[in-house]
Write a structure and sequence with these properties.
The structure is a homodimer.
Chain A (H helix, E strand, L loop, with lengths): L14 H20 L7 H7 L4 H7 L3 H15 L14 H21 L1 H12 L3 H27 L9 H17 L1 H6 L4 H17 L6
Helix pairs in contact in A: 1-2, 1-4, 2-3, 4-6, 4-7, 5-8, 5-10, 6-7, 7-8, 8-10
Chain A binds a DNA duplex through helix 1 and helix 3.
Keywords (chains A, B): DNA-binding, Transcription, Transcription regulation
Protein name (chains A, B): TetR family transcriptional regulator
Organism (chains A, B): Streptomyces thermocoprophilus
DNA sequence: TCGGTAAGCTGACGGCATGACAGGACAAGT
DNA sequence: ACTTGTCCTGTCATGCCGTCAGCTTACCGA
């Protein structure tokens, strides 16, 4: 599937090498959580991992390269997000629950990986195709399901035909990501975490079905 | 009002100094549009402005400091966004038009300032209070109006009481910002710019009024 | 016209991060 | 013990960072 792990100069990495490599990735992750992306330096990551900058450069071309690696691992885990929507109903009380669980699960994922996701978002916004690809991979796991759900309802005539399912689905998902990234803003608006979720679920439900949920 | 413009070492900046300062800011803006934030170096900005790094450090403590300055200028301009909502109606056809114009105006602003807004978003997400303050200043110009509109409808009993107007308003505004930042993603989902806007307007209308618009 | 003063700019410098290389340390098999 | 291939690091040239002293320029009052 994915070829063997290799160093920058082409050697295959053995057991010890992979451990070092992973340690560097872990330390980089921690640093991203604690300091601004712009200030994360190779030398700091190496120091924290108890090794030297030269070692870092054996496994990654630069900080960005290592970040892409972390993001890739996370994107793989994001496949689990599809469970939030697979086989769910959007009608009646079940619909309200689906919306709630989607909001819950998605925001949980985003919060758990917030540091790396910030960087992925930035890279994607700056037009970097590699970051964009990863971001879409993560979002697609939810967006495509959501798009199908909307299309389904549309086919049954429950939603106007001039609605674009992909646009609505994408906008809703992107909304969730942005809210998760900027929860601090909401608290200064006087909105508490606990209040936020049901309101987001309401918006999601409205967007998908066009109607208020029956609770 | 705002004290005189000063250099880092406390001198007041004269006409020439202010021109240089502004030129550095302009060049920094350009650089932010063309290269990743992480790679923007003082020396590059200075070179582009036809001056030396030392001059840059006379006016700004570092790149971040200069970015905050640009962001402040932009936040001042964002006051114009209030016009998009002042005295608008959310009922009937007028409501649909209000939603459309809000989406249009807001996304236009975001696209015009996308480079600097990316950085502000990142800074805010990383927990930097200064960036968060600027971001909220920009968003508040729209969010507070939107919150009032929702509260008003709620007072008339047209919206459920358990809806939190600030949460809904914030989520909708944040959605617009995120969509504007990641339009590229939508095009790979097969959603064109022209299709996107009415669907966003629909979501905004649904969120504010709880009902589908009458077009 | 002529200093005097403050603003404005830059060359130069120590310090640190970067990225490349060669060579030493280490584990595993013979 | 010896060989082999993996793994790590000391070292070095390069380039950016951030600061300072000192030079040039503009303004102003006498």
């Amino acid at each position: 599937m994915t070829g063997q792990v290799r160093t920058v100069d082409g050697r295959v990495a053995g057991r010890r090498g992979q451990a070092t490599r992973q340690k560097l990735l872990d330390c980089l992750s921690e640093m991203l959580s604690s300091s601004p992306y712009r200030d994360v330096k190779v030398i700091d990551v190496a120091r924290r991992a108890g090794t030297s900058p030269a070692t870092f450069y054996q496994y990654f071309p630069d900080v960005e390269g290592a970040v892409l690696e972390i993001a890739d691992q996370m994107a793989a885990e994001s496949a689990g997000l599809t469970e939030l929507l697979e086989g769910r109903s959007w009608t009646g009380k079940a619909g309200w629950q689906t919306a709630q669980e989607l909001v819950d699960g998605f925001m949980e994922f985003w919060r758990k990986n917030d540091a790396i996701l910030r960087v992925v978002d930035l890279g994607a916004a700056e037009g970097d195709k590699r970051f964009n690809k990863i971001r879409l991979k993560i979002l697609n796991s939810v967006t495509s399901s959501l798009t199908e759900a909307i299309s389904g309802l549309q086919a049954k005539g429950r939603i106007d035909k001039d609605v674009n399912p992909a646009a609505i689905a994408g906008a809703l998902v992107v909304m969730l990501t942005a809210v998760a990234s900027h929860q601090k803003g909401f608290s200064t608006w006087g909105v508490k975490q606990a209040e936020l979720k049901p309101n987001l679920a309401l918006l999601v439900h409205l967007g998908v079905t066009g109607k208020k949920p029956t609770k």
